[in-house]
Amino acid sequence: MKPLLVLALVMTLYSCNENQNTVPLYIGTYTSGDSEGIYKLNFNTETGMLTNLTLAATIGNPSFIAYSPNQKYMYAVNEADHGTVSSFRITETGHLTLINTVKSFGGAPCHISVNDSGTKLAASNYSGGNIALYDINEDGSLTEASQVFDHNLPNEKSHAHSAQFFKDVLFVADLGRNAMYKYIKNDTDAYTLKDSSFIKMTPNAGPRHFTFTKNADFIYVINEYASTITAAKKTGNTYEVISNTSTLADGFTDRNDCADIHLSNNEEFLYGSNRGENTIAVFRRDLINGNITKIQNASVHGNWPRNFTLSPDGKFLLVANQKSDNISVFKINDNDGTLSFLHDINIPTPVCLLF
């Protein structure tokens, strides 16, 4: 066989192997500086390397992004005083084609989520203090908001920070009202408020983001102001708090604002981000009683870890460091869940990571 033919065959096999080991990672950003919108990187699931940075869509302040369940469409908030929500079609090359944009009906939308059937989207408006619900059409486009839930009171300002669907329930974390809300879908496909305080928060905790086990028997809320994680267990139709655990290392006394939280795929470990201490707090989780025990505070090798994510296979953890303009990659220890820093890559103002 001729040498050039052998080389071509080797390169083809290498390219095929690389493609098999590569998955896309999309990055939401703030665009007040060098960023232009939503970016895309290739992530190697064997090595953890990030390569081939491209601009997937030009859009203002896409600070949170989410897939449709079939991953044919993507949705982004446009975090501004007069906020909007945009829908995109994902092309074969991984670029995003805008479908439509609708009002968020509140200022500074900072989070979105889609239900499992891909028919509803919830947008959380931080400065607007409300949650807007949308119907999703078959072509991935969004209707105008079908419902808007205003949490503001005359003497108490709401900062709705995140909302997630679980079956026919919509859970909401409201940092401003220091409360967790629960909405239930009724027979008309609309949602109605069931409980405005279904988890009892400690004073001035500031619930920001939350995660729950696959069966939603346990919920874990990360609190921005208190730098704690509130763990709650389902009891009947409500949740009973089982613990409030600090995210900070012993002796850390400077300012800290917690941000994001995620469970490992096997639900044995829990991770939370500290902005200020600039760490990921790692917890071991008891699968029976839901209690958590902190085992590590791992430096994020950057500044202000607003959001982080686990790779689809659960082997890596990636952190978006907003103020240092980099994404850090960590290897997750299979046995104890601890993190080992591998490398990082520069990208302007990353604030949301989506595999």
UniProtKB/TrEMBL annotation:
<dbReference type="Pfam" id="PF10282">
    <property type="entry name" value="Lactonase"/>
</dbReference>
<dbReference type="InterPro" id="IPR011048">
    <property type="entry name" value="Haem_d1_sf"/>
</dbReference>
<comment type="similarity">
    <text>Belongs to the cycloisomerase 2 family.</text>
</comment>
<dbReference type="GO" id="GO:0005829">
    <property type="term" value="C:cytosol"/>
</dbReference>
<dbReference type="InterPro" id="IPR015943">
    <property type="entry name" value="WD40/YVTN_repeat-like_dom_sf"/>
</dbReference>
<dbReference type="GO" id="GO:0006006">
    <property type="term" value="P:glucose metabolic process"/>
</dbReference>
<protein>
    <recommendedName>
        <fullName>6-phosphogluconolactonase</fullName>
    </recommendedName>
</protein>
<dbReference type="InterPro" id="IPR019405">
    <property type="entry name" value="Lactonase_7-beta_prop"/>
</dbReference>
<keyword id="KW-0313">Glucose metabolism</keyword>
<dbReference type="GO" id="GO:0017057">
    <property type="term" value="F:6-phosphogluconolactonase activity"/>
</dbReference>
<dbReference type="InterPro" id="IPR050282">
    <property type="entry name" value="Cycloisomerase_2"/>
</dbReference>
<keyword id="KW-0119">Carbohydrate metabolism</keyword>
